[in-house]
Amino acid sequence: MLVTDVVLREITRCDDAQKKAVRDVRNQPNIRKSMYTEHKITLKEHLAWVDRLSNDKKQIVFIVLVDDVVGGIVSINLLDRLHLKSDWAFYLDKNIPGGLGPALEYELINFVFNELGLEKLNCEVIETNGAVVKLHKKFGFMEEGFRRENIIKDLQRIGVFFLGLTKSDWINCEGEVLAKYKRVIEKFDVQIEY
């Protein structure tokens, strides 16, 4: 079986070309439609965001490198060391090989609970992105709420799903998740550089 090398490299450790390439992924229409804001991100705006990350202790952003090519972002947001919780999100270039999403989800969950020592992982997903809601639920996330008409997209108000996963729930379901997704997860050698 051919294994694809994937590195999650903390964005401030990436070179300037990689940092800039992330903007191209962020500006893809399929990515923008799933984000809270969907305007085209200017280079100036993007570089300012990257610069802010170097001093932000509540956020860890990884560039996804697939065979050394920028393929997306995985972010840990609202990192709360007092209450041992955070939010997270990811997005991938439309040309990324199938199956990487579940492999990243598996690795990120283990990183958050085992390396960062957190006890709760949360995420928000806009209601038009039902596939991601289903994916998170397959990894043990539970729907914890739904905010109706919470954001404006395309001049319409749409809702947002709130999902959460506790460390104890992950301990109970990790084996089942790994058994179900083992063939997919093993297609990728994911390394996290933090």
Largest sheet features: 8 strands, mixed
State mean pLDDT (0 to 100 scale). Answer: 94
Figure out the total of helices. Answer: 6
- How many beta-strand segments? 8
Strand order of the largest sheet: 6-7-5-4-3-2-1-8
What's the gyration radius in Å?
A: 16 Å
Return the CATH architecture.
Answer: 3-Layer(aba) Sandwich
* Amino- and carboxy-terminal Cα gap: 28 Å
> Could you state the CATH homologous superfamily?
Gcn5-related N-acetyltransferase (GNAT)
**Order of SSEs:** EHHHEEEHEHEEHE
Q: State the CATH class.
A: Alpha Beta
Beta strand %: 35-45%
CATH topology category name: Aminopeptidase
The coarse overall form would be globular
Poorly predicted regions: none
Q: What would you say this structure looks like, in words?
A:
The two termini are 28 Å apart. Helix 4 (100-115) runs antiparallel to helix 6 (167-185). Strand 6 and strand 7 (156-166) form a beta hairpin. The chain contains 6 helices and 8 strands. It is globular. The protein is of the alpha+beta class. The protein has an 8-stranded mixed beta sheet with strand order 6-7-5-4-3-2-1-8, with helices on both faces. It has one domain: 3-Layer(aba) Sandwich (Aminopeptidase).
